[in-house]
């Protein structure tokens, strides 16, 4: 029987995103979320985490498109302007591969972000990264060291099972073709990811669905994705939220799509689709029991 962890990213981004994630957990199929320690609504997210003990909460480690938890001078290679992280994955990856980022700075900042949540009473079940920065092997290693220091033993496998998704009618959606090509190219790091995670003694899933469909998820696409989930334990990455004034003040490409995702995740049809395919909902904390 396939198992699916439905994880909502960007917990702590805005109060509206927080509210939507909790609703998608209470009324829908979301089983876990990853909280941004440097998010403007992190305190609200931590409060909601404590009020919803059935929701697994991990750390959404942010190394780009934001500001550090630590003083910028302590992680200077991560903040080229002396204040904020690099804005996007391309510039971050280019700098990391050229050796312009001090890997100790990644470890320190990730540790500080995880510790901030733990110090607030959050039992951090797992971690992932904003914009999937941990796809990069040189970035993954210091992140794993930070997680182990903090006692966190599970990590997102961000790699997409491209063959099943190719059969999930994605090619009928021209807006996803470019993203499909990008995701397929990034799979070159998948074997290294599995090896590094195993060597660190960490737990992960077989891969992630939802990465490719971010910003485009609707009921039909969700049904198609569920219809091609293989045996194993997988993660479905989602971004529910409310498109409100608080979100207007945040730099994000995901706006109206967050509301659509919330509708999908709380619909009776979503739960029925999982039941029809005998897909069992799971959590990252279940990985340690399997």
Describe the structure.
The chain has a single domain (3-289), classed as TIM Barrel (Alpha-Beta Barrel), CATH 3.20.20.370. It has helices at residues 15-26, 42-51, 89-97, 103-119, 137-149, 162-166, 177-186, 190-199, 219-226, 245-248, 256-265, 268-276, and strands at residues 3-11, 32-35, 56-61, 124-129, 208-209, 233-238, 280-282. Strands 1, 2, 3, 4, 5, 6 and 7 form a seven-stranded parallel sheet that branches. It is built from twelve helices and seven strands. The longest helix has 17 residues, at 103-119. It is an alpha/beta fold and 290 residues long.
Mean pLDDT: 91
Note the main sheet: 7 strands, parallel
CATH class label: Alpha Beta
Q: How would the global form be characterised? A: globular
Rg, nearest Å: 18 Å
CATH superfamily: Glycoside hydrolase/deacetylase
Number of domains: 1
CATH topology: TIM Barrel
Topology pattern, helix = H, strand = E: EHEHEHHEHHHHEHEHHHE
Give the helix tally: 12
Total count of strands: 7
Low-confidence stretches: none
Structural class: alpha/beta
Strand content: 5-15%
CATH architecture: Alpha-Beta Barrel
Cα-to-Cα separation, first versus last residue: 13 Å
Question: Helical proportion?
Answer: 40-55%
Q: What features would you highlight for this structure?
A:
single chain, alpha/beta, globular, 7 strands, 290 residues, TIM Barrel
